[in-house]
Amino acid sequence: MASRLTQARNRVVDRMVNAPRDTDERALRRAVAGKTVLVTGASFGLGEATARTLARHGAIVLAVARTAERLDELVAAIEAEGGKAYAYPADLSDFDSIGPLADKMIAEHGGIDIVINNAGKSMRRSLDLQYDRFHDFTRMVNVNYLGPVRLLLAVLPHMRERGSGQIVNVSTIGVRIPPGPRWGVYQSTKGAFDIWLRSIAPEIKVDGIDVSTIYMTLIYTRMSAPTPSMRKLPGMSAKEASGLVTRAIIGREREITPWWVTPAQATDAVARGAVTWGMGILHRNSSDTASARGEAVR
Ligand SMILES: NC(=O)c1ccc[n+]([C@@H]2O[C@H](COP(=O)([O-])OP(=O)(O)OC[C@H]3O[C@@H](n4cnc5c(N)ncnc54)[C@H](OP(=O)(O)O)[C@@H]3O)[C@@H](O)[C@H]2O)c1
């Protein structure tokens, strides 16, 4: 067990690095009890932790991801605690199946109140390794951008007709700070969805739908696990990070961003040359992981 000193140090680092979370149980229950919440990427990591928390506070969770067995286990665990959840196994990059999936969920539950756009794929790989890997780009754009767009195109008309709803997007800090080497395909695909969603936000706000974007910092999940250097950086557990999703739901905030993003953006604006030079040094002094060198992306 960590000593008190270690715990205190971890708390300070957490406050310095991550945006504050909201764990007000009563406020969360008021915000989600009886609401139908669609969580994409609910089979692992942040999506799974979020689904569990929301169900525990009375939400009816619609869990979407590819790994059906994991969704079944999640539903069973939620039901065992007296909550309500339904599994909808689906591949978000199978665009033709998403419209019918959304129609099915809406028909079976009478509508969707909140969408947590959480499913995603990350990739850290040098350009040198990508000349023969155009499929890296198509796979990532499909799951991080086009799949979520396809889903919202199917869900939003119904939400707008009902005159209420919320879209919570789990984005990454990488789309707000100066882009780092090796993360190009991940950051650009997450950035594309972020910009699209922010563009449509004023159009759907008039129909009572709020958009909240979380610019997420490091979470220790299977996504960050293949990059050993990440383990040395301060991050959150999936459960801790779910406190940012619940904060977005409770406060319906437009964005959740750690404080240090603004100085990072300002530095990039006034000294892009120096920032690019620094990124070059970072690139030369780091390397691709074993998985980036060979492993297929699932
Ligand atoms: N981990 C971090 O450090 C970090 C930092 C910033 C932002 N984020 C963002 O946080 C979100 C959650 O990431 P995580 O760390 O929890 O990763 P994770 O543990 O790998 O979970 C990703 C989830 O997305 C689902 N998914 C992936 N491809 C899919 C597809 N084609 N169709 C449907 N579902 C799919 C996965 O389920 P299946 O494999 O079962 O389909 C899984 O449930 C992502 O959007 C990520 O970009 C993460």
UniProtKB/TrEMBL annotation:
<dbReference type="Pfam" id="PF00106">
    <property type="entry name" value="adh_short"/>
</dbReference>
<dbReference type="InterPro" id="IPR036291">
    <property type="entry name" value="NAD(P)-bd_dom_sf"/>
</dbReference>
<keyword id="KW-0560">Oxidoreductase</keyword>
<dbReference type="GO" id="GO:0016020">
    <property type="term" value="C:membrane"/>
</dbReference>
<protein>
    <submittedName>
        <fullName>SDR family NAD(P)-dependent oxidoreductase</fullName>
    </submittedName>
</protein>
<dbReference type="GO" id="GO:0016491">
    <property type="term" value="F:oxidoreductase activity"/>
</dbReference>
<dbReference type="InterPro" id="IPR002347">
    <property type="entry name" value="SDR_fam"/>
</dbReference>
<comment type="similarity">
    <text>Belongs to the short-chain dehydrogenases/reductases (SDR) family.</text>
</comment>
